[in-house]
Amino acid sequence: MALVDILHMNSGSGDSSYTNNSLFTKIVMQKTAPFLKRTIKGMANKDILSDHCFMIADLGCSSGMNTLSLASNIIDIVHEVCQENNRKTPQFQVCLNDLFGNDFNNVFKLLPNFYKTLRKCKGEQIGPCFVSVVPGSFYGRLFPDESLHLIHSSYSVHWLSQVPEGLENNKQNIYIAKTSPLDVLQAYGKQFQTDFTKFLQLRYEEIVHDGRMVIVFQSRSSLDPTNDECSTLWELLIMSLLEMLKEGLVLESDINSFNLPFYFPHGDELRRIIEEDGSFSLDDIDIFEVDWDQHDMECNNRGKKTTKSIRAVTELLFSSHFGNSIIDMLFKKFEKKLADHLATKKTRHLCVVISLIKK
């Protein structure tokens, strides 16, 4: 099956759902909030906020409260900036985008409280807010020409449009690993460059002149994509699969034909692709760290929460390839290995956030 048909976070509100295991992405959003505020303040100088309706798109919105928290945060910032500049706060159109399998029903159930809270906090100070969903891949067109003022995407654009071609030599690995041949590293980098360039060109058509994009990626500090901050979690997962291979629970051919479809770019890679494409200018860039196990410390169970987060994001990919029967065992083994790893080492997780302006 095509990746677009199977890729989505775990739906519903159960123990393994993305809704109940998205604290890490919430922490990332909180850390990038000041950056987002600076970006919107910069828009005030271009009179973009004076339009009748401010159009916002959240690409790769997934489900759960994080999505509407972001929308609420953007509305608050725009309202504050308009007040500072003695302008009337515009109406808002919030467009939520994700792939067709996304649990949009979960988002719909949260909308009544979202609207109620917005009216209670802002009253008549702002124009009405309209939320809609736009399902589809952001590697295709999603919106009319020059219709959006601000695009936001957090932890989504490092997902590729497809598993890179030419990974046949990446045996007994499921991502870029220290044992991966050079051509595997190159294939991932090439696929990301192709996808991100296409993403920029498509969004160029959809954003107004001087409109902004704020994009958050998982990143890395080293030019080497096999360094620990990128590969540790996935190498623990392949170790779990190889252990199951010895137990006769999975086939070696299934392991060798499975690779994860994402790529964590270095900041210099992003700069180069943006400059080579030329659709946008890089307005600002920031890099920061988050600990994968930061929220595990709160529940005195190192590894458990992080395992649930990884499962919520990747389970559908594993189950569609290996079958549902191995999933519980796979993540049980992974949790044990991750807990042992975290007991002796700190897992560093690097993020990069960029602000782009349409030329």
Write up this protein:
- By secondary structure, the chain is of the alpha/beta class.
- It contains ten helices and seven strands.
- It has a seven-stranded mixed β-sheet, with helices on both faces.
- The model has no long low-confidence stretch (mean pLDDT 85).
Strand order of the largest sheet: 3-2-1-4-5-7-6
Main sheet record: 7 strands, mixed
What's the total number of strands? 7
Task: Give the overall average pLDDT.
Answer: 85
Determine the fraction of residues in helical runs and give it as a percent range. Answer: 40-55%
The value of Rg in angstroms is: 21 Å
- Beta-strand percent range: 15-25%
Characterize the overall form: globular
Alpha-beta classification: alpha/beta
Instruction: Give helix and strand order, one letter per element, not per position.
Output: HHEHEHEEHEHHHEHHE
Poorly predicted residue ranges: none
Distance between the termini: 38 Å
How many helical elements?
10
List keywords for this structure.
359 residues; globular; seven-stranded mixed beta sheet; alpha/beta; 10 helices
In short:
The chain contains 10 helices and 7 strands.
